[in-house]
Amino acid sequence: MDIRNASKEELLTLKAELTAQYDECCAKNLKLNMARGKPGADQLDLSKDLLTVIATNEDTVMDGTDLRNYGGLDGIPSCKALFAELLGTKPENVLIGGNASLTMMYDNMMRLWVFGDCNGSTPWSKLEKVKFLCPVPGYDRHFSICQQLGMEMIPVPMDDNGPDMNMVEELVKDEAVKGIWCVPKYSNPSGAVYSDEVIQRFAALKPAAKDFKIMWDNAYVVHHLTDEEIEILDIFEEAKKHGNEDMIFMFASTSKITYPGAGVACMVASENNMKWTKKLLGVQAIGPDKINQARHVKFFGNAAGVKEHMKKHAAILAPKFQMVLDMLEQNLQGTGATWLAAKGGYFISFDLPGCATRIFELCKNAGLVMTDAGATWPYGKDPQDSNLRIAPSLPPVSELKDAMEVFCICAKLAAVEKALG
Amino acid sequence: MDIRNASKEELLTLKAELTAQYDECCAKNLKLNMARGKPGADQLDLSKDLLTVIATNEDTVMDGTDLRNYGGLDGIPSCKALFAELLGTKPENVLIGGNASLTMMYDNMMRLWVFGDCNGSTPWSKLEKVKFLCPVPGYDRHFSICQQLGMEMIPVPMDDNGPDMNMVEELVKDEAVKGIWCVPKYSNPSGAVYSDEVIQRFAALKPAAKDFKIMWDNAYVVHHLTDEEIEILDIFEEAKKHGNEDMIFMFASTSKITYPGAGVACMVASENNMKWTKKLLGVQAIGPDKINQARHVKFFGNAAGVKEHMKKHAAILAPKFQMVLDMLEQNLQGTGATWLAAKGGYFISFDLPGCATRIFELCKNAGLVMTDAGATWPYGKDPQDSNLRIAPSLPPVSELKDAMEVFCICAKLAAVEKALG
User: Fold this and answer.
1) How far apart are alpha carbons A68 and A61 in whole angstroms?
2) Hey, is the C-beta of A286 within 8 angstroms of any chain B C-beta?
3) Residue ending a domain, choose from A258, A274, A305
4) How far apart are the CA of A229 and the nearest CA of chain B, in angstroms?
5) Could you tell me if B56 lies within 8 Å of chain A, comparing CB atoms?
6) Is the pLDDT of residue A36 over 90?
7) Would you state the pLDDT for residue B1?
8) Is residue A287 within 8 angstroms of chain B, CB to CB?
9) Is the distance from CB of B95 to CB of B277 less than 8 angstroms?
10) Which of A260, A285, A290 sits opposite B100 (nearest CB)?
11) Interface mutation vs chain A, best among B43, B69, B148, B149, most A CBs within 10 Å
């Protein structure tokens, strides 16, 4: 039955059925969670040897440096080389950070806010108004940074190829628009992969603001879920053609390669931006944890080692994603719901206009925690109340099945309620 | 001979002798360094077991948390408890950071600069003028933070009991004076220990600025060099008596307990300041490296374990400090030079008015790197050109002896040159 064309009687019958199922769910006192993109314990177990790969005093010398002591503002050479190989850049364009690319992004935004960019632009904090472009659905932690700094966020719709570039090109004519957040590969949450055309248009942007910055969060660069290891264009190479290299900051980390809490993050930037960053960063820090960098270098050896390791993650994750997709397919036909079969990353983006908040509440009351409805939009406000982010990675398969059963009942019930008006 | 009372002839003879000695030094092509307070390799070797104390997947669960995964913004409970015991506070007043208290101090200053304090004060960046008090001689990295933010730094003289509190109490009548840097125990570089009276007067301060903040850098809290394990008054306890708890931020780290590059840092603050910090920090970070926290907890067990460990550091460091003091005593009598026999910390503060820059240059040309002359003063400008910071920890004893021979020759030569006018 297609709920959208059903009679009132049919809908009432269905609602009664679903309500009975829902009440059964609630009675089970479930405690399920599909809220955040956390790797499961079995994924974390894959990196066990990381813990002991640096074990003796002798192991703590690498690249001729005592890793235990002070120093190394931009990271140890071999760790910069590892990330450079992985990200297709040169080591001198890589800055190694601590355990979180989020912190590197925040600190980069803060530097622009307080000090102005590498070409001596006015610090954004001194301007009347700063606007930032936010492709939607997007990553709530990106938006929180803008919100904390009091920027005005402008949503830009995404499709399977990335953000709407006509709209981006139009919006950047406003000098108050200072930048944009991008997750170019296996986007959070839609899984979209930016097309060559989208990346080329980003690289060629001519914003009115000379200090416009692209925050290129390459969080899922090697996080494939299928045998198709999708590669995207190198935005720095493209930007070079237009003299736009200073416009781009790229971020990545091993949070979802080794350990979310104890991985290594990095930033990639132009020569000018590296100089600017290191000068300012040198007052904030002496250097990130070099022993943990060395652990990663020794554990992986090289980029091929990382890619091999990611296949083990995919072997664990792909069946979970497939189960979610299968259950959506089986249960939510004819409800108006849509979703994307992501080929990588950590999320499945789910849309059912007018129902997201209600689905979230129903799930919550049945013991299933989902990411807040609206979280994928700036200010937590989804104008269509449509999008929910499904994170299948953390629960074991058996729990995931329970969680998706609850989710599908809740989504269908919300759709029926909406159809009944 | 006392250089200050010597005849011109005597001085010229001495100068010729010293110059000959100096030329001999230069001819050796030495490569010595007494510049930074880095622990030596033998000290770092003491923490070898830290590397392997968390070795299996099972080890990565502590306090009921998977240390490998996301979370834990303020640190794991057992690590907060360890620092709380060490610093005489409650775990709920402790915030664990990454590997650097410097970064925690910088970020705290940045939060005050951009967002204003826990009581909703005007962000310092919005004020016409912000002044900060800097006890001298002091720590260059503290001063760099103020300088980067464009604050006006006001030097406050230190003696053996801490900063000149009459001057502090006078200066804080100016509402533009927003804070002060303090290293209350074994101060960097003088080794001074703040007296009870100084701490009580800090705790009782009534600055004109309601958002005045004391940056209490307890970097050397357990870093004794003698059997006398000096304890100072708890500034938070004292501040409570005056309702001044929100005025104080304390910092500490294991940088000079385990590893400078891979230790654990923390901040201690009032309940209000903890709430304020966590709210803002939650946008910058998900949580610091929990595995490294657990390593420290398991390696030390408790505060007594840390104190036991510090005795091993003292056994290595104390002879180095003694050698420096002995050589100063033997060689620099009658030059006008003064120094302090620190009972803890990492430095010996050396003074010879009008000679610091010349000594630094002479040392440099003879292959001995010292901390820049002036570095212990705001803007790197020592008005008396007097102070140099000697850091005896890094060189092995044999090199340290060579370094101090060079240093003493240079200092004496500079004194003679000055006496000759």
Assistant:
1) 8
2) yes
3) A305
4) 25
5) yes
6) no
7) 82
8) yes
9) yes
10) A285
11) B69
Beta-bridge partner residues of A154:
A133
Name the amino acid, one letter, at A396.
P
The answer on A369 and A258 residing in a single domain is: no
* pLDDT tier at B36, thresholds 50, 70, 90: confident
Q: Are residues A274 and A391 in the same domain?
A: no
Can you tell me the distance from the alpha carbon of B152 to that of B164, in angstroms, rounded to the nearest whole number? 19
- For residues B274 and B328, membership in a common domain is answered with no
Q: How far apart are CA A164 and CA B257, in angstroms?
A: 53
Classify residue B122 by its DSSP letter.
P
CA A71/CA A74 separation, integer angstroms = 9
Query: Six-digit token pair at B224?
Result: 């004794």
Scan for tokens 């967002």, then name that residue. Answer: B115
Q: Is A21 left (phi over 0), alpha (psi -120 to 50) or beta?
A: alpha
Q: What share of chain A is helix, strand, coil (3-state, %, to 5)?
A: 45, 15, 40
* Per-residue pLDDT tens over the stretch B298-328: 999 999 999 999 999 999 999 999 999 999 9
d(CA B39, CA B394): 5
Judge whether B310 and B223 are in contact, CB under 8 Å: yes
Task: Give yes or no: residues B260 and B358 share one domain.
Answer: no
Q: What is the DSSP string of A71-114?
A: --TT--HHHHHHHHHHHTS-GGGEEE-SS-HHHHHHHHHHHHHH
Measured in degrees and rounded to the nearest 5, phi and psi for residue A16 equal -60, -45
Chain B residues closer than 8 Å to A70 by CB: 36, 38, 255, 260-261
Domain of residue B94, CATH code: 3.40.640.10
CA B282/CA B201 separation, integer angstroms: 34
Q: Which residue of B has its CA nearest to A113?
A: B114
Which of A242, A274, A305 lies at the terminal end of a domain, its last residue? A305
B395 touches chain A (CB under 8 A): no
Strand, helix or coil at A226?
coil
Residues in a beta bridge with A369: A33
Q: Report, as an integer, the average pLDDT of B251-262.
A: 98
What range defines the domain where residue A344 resides? 3-44+307-420
Distance from the Cα of B130 to chain A's closest Cα (Å) equals: 15
Region A150-179: what's the mean pLDDT?
98
Give the separation between CA B232 and CA B252, rounded to whole angstroms. Answer: 15
- The ipTM of this complex is 0.97
CATH number, domain of B37, equals 3.90.1150.10
Closest CA to A102 of A212, A265, A283, A237: A265
Residues 6 or more apart in contact with residue A243 via CB below 8 angstroms: none
Q: Name every residue whose Cβ is closer than 8 Å to that of residue B398 and which is 6 or more positions away in sequence.
A: none
- pTM value is 0.97
* Contact predicate B215/B149, CB 8 Å: no
> Of A141, A135, A166, A169, which is closest to residue A153 (Cα–Cα)?
A135
Q: Looking at the partner chain, which of A72, A103, A147 has a beta carbon nearest the beta carbon of B285?
A: A103
Distance CA B34, CA B38 (A): 9
The pLDDT assigned to B224 comes to: 97
Q: Tell me, yes or no, if B227 comes closer than 8 A to chain A by beta carbon.
A: no
- A144 and A281 co-located in one domain: yes
Q: Give residue-wise pLDDT tens across range B177-222.
A: 999 999 999 999 999 999 999 999 999 999 999 999 999 999 999 9
Residues of A in contact with B261 (CB under 8 A): 67-72, 286-287, 289-291
- Same domain membership, residue A314 and residue A271: no
DSSP element (H, E) containing B262: none
Whether the pLDDT of residue B399 is over 90: the answer is: yes
Cβ neighbors of A216 (< 8 A, separation 6 or more) are: A182, A184, A235, A248, A249, A250, A251
CB spacing of A103 vs B38 below 8 angstroms? no
Interface of B with A in 112-171 (CB under 8 A): 113-115, 125, 141, 144-145, 148-149
